[in-house]
Design goal:
Residues 1-32 form the signal peptide. By secondary structure, the protein is of the alpha/beta class. It has a single domain, classed as Alpha-Beta Barrel (TIM Barrel). The chain is built from 12 helices and 18 strands. The chain has helices spanning 28-33, 60-69, 99-107, 122-129, 132-147, 160-163, 167-190, 212-218, 242-255, 285-295, 326-338, 356-361, and strands at 14-18, 21-26, 50-54, 74-79, 82-84, 90-92, 111-112, 115-118, 153-157, 194-200, 221-225, 261-266, 268-273, 281-284, 300-302, 307-314, 317-323, 343-347. The strands form 3 sheets. It has an 11-stranded mixed beta sheet with strand order 6-5-8-9-10-11-12-18-3-4-7. The chain has a 5-stranded antiparallel beta sheet with strand order 14-13-17-16-15. A hairpin with a 7-residue loop joins strand 13 (268-273) and strand 14 (281-284). Helix 5 (132-147) packs across helix 7 (167-190), helix 7 (167-190) runs parallel beside helix 8 and helix 9 (242-255) packs parallel to helix 11 (326-338). The radius of gyration is 21 Å and the shape is globular. The two termini are 22 Å apart.
């Protein structure tokens, strides 16, 4: 990623942020003296080491304000605005392309790199990726999207292809996606845009549809989803764990340059009903804590995984809630430091424990 080309706040300026963006710009001296022409003293700016996704289905305005509030730590925000449904069609989600949001984030010095996910399964994606004409048409559709607004690049979060089909079909996805990333990232770089690729954690049992080495060469950033070790359609348990972070970071840092890696933390949890084969309910950190207090459940912290959890009853049903908070993030950060990974992420803005940002700043 070309750091010199990233939109940044000018050193020494104080930005007065509102929900609509930046209301005024004053130097520190002017802020104190009511002047706008006083020279700003030289001051070291904090490192921006975090990125975050902005959801479209939750309180978008609150998520946007969250980003502005923590602009000093954020280098990139990825609005979750688009879905590829075919070779050439990219569906816009509600609120996609909001120019006020884009402008406000830019004024706060944050890159805007929208996320595109895909609804095509492994068989469909393998066919697309290995067909040179269709692959080129899909790249062209993504380039048109990037050019449609003042975007700084694109983030690809292609997961359906990685979790469907046979092992043989996912291997075809792996080789085809590497070709696709080479071509897409080269085209983006030629236009001065960033190429970000989001991947599942690569372990002995997951993430095999992604060629980390090839993707790491092509992309500016490789974002690892450091969550859903236990997920909505599985058994109750921590969304992440210290041992799991060790496993996937050991592999990732052998195959991708450390300065390109990001590890995204969860700001949410799952509520499973014991003995019921049904999808668990999604809870943001705020919702999980409110539920715990309402039910009078004890806060428990699992030191082995580094995550909080609690149990409650609803009628005859027993519920198990596992989630993540700032304490858990602080427990996981030493593993990132051990492997030399500084860049972090958040799924998603507005979901998280407000102390999350202080935990990151404590690195």
């Amino acid at each position: 990623m070309d750091q010199a080309s990233a939109p940044r706040a000018r050193p020494g300026l104080v930005f007065l942020l509102t929900a609509a963006g930046v209301a005024a710009v004053l130097t520190p001296g002017a802020a104190a003296q009511g002047r706008t022409d006083a020279p700003a003293p030289a001051a070291a700016q904090p490192a921006r080491t975090a990125s975050a996704w902005l959801p479209y289905w939750d309180d978008t305005k609150a998520a946007y304000r969250d980003a502005l509030q923590h602009a000093a730590q954020l280098h990139t925000v990825s609005p979750f605005w688009y879905r590829a449904t075919s070779t050439t069609h990219i569906k816009s989600q509600p609120g996609a392309g909001d120019k006020q949001v884009i402008a406000g984030l830019h004024q706060a010095g944050i890159k805007v790199v929208p996320t595109v996910n895909e609804s095509m399964d492994a068989t469909a994606m393998a066919a697309l990726l290995h067909d040179r004409t269709r692959r080129g048409a899909h790249i062209a559709a993504l380039l048109r999207l990037v050019a449609s607004r003042a975007y700084d690049g694109v983030d690809l979060d292609y997961e359906t292809m990685a979790t469907t089909g046979s092992a043989r079909m996912r291997e075809r996805v792996r080789t085809g996606y590497a070709l696709f990333a080479d071509e897409l990232c080269a085209r983006l770089h030629a236009k001065g845009k960033s190429c970000v690729i989001t991947v599942m954690a690569r372990t002995g049992t997951s993430g095999k549809a992604y060629d980390y080495a090839r993707l790491g060469k092509a992309a500016d950033r490789v974002r690892i989803m450091g969550y859903d070790l236990h997920w909505a359609e599985g058994s109750p348990g921590p969304l992440s764990s210290l041992a799991w972070y060790e496993e996937f970071l050991r592999y990732a840092t052998r195959t991708v340059p450390r300065d390109k890696l990001e590890v995204a933390f969860p700001g949410y949890g799952w509520d499973w009903t014991q003995g019921v084969k049904a999808r668990a309910k999604h809870l943001t950190w705020k919702e999980a804590e409110a539920l715990r207090r309402r039910k009078g459940a004890a806060y428990r912290f699992d030191a082995k995984s580094g995550t909080p959890h609690f149990t409650y009853r609803a009628g005859r049903a027993v519920h198990h809630v596992w989630y993540q908070d700032a304490r858990g993030v602080a427990a996981h950060l030493p593993v990132l430091r051990k492997y030399g990974v500084r860049n972090t992420g958040l799924w998603a803005l507005g979901f998280e424990d407000p102390r999350f940002w202080k935990a990151l700043g404590g690195e």
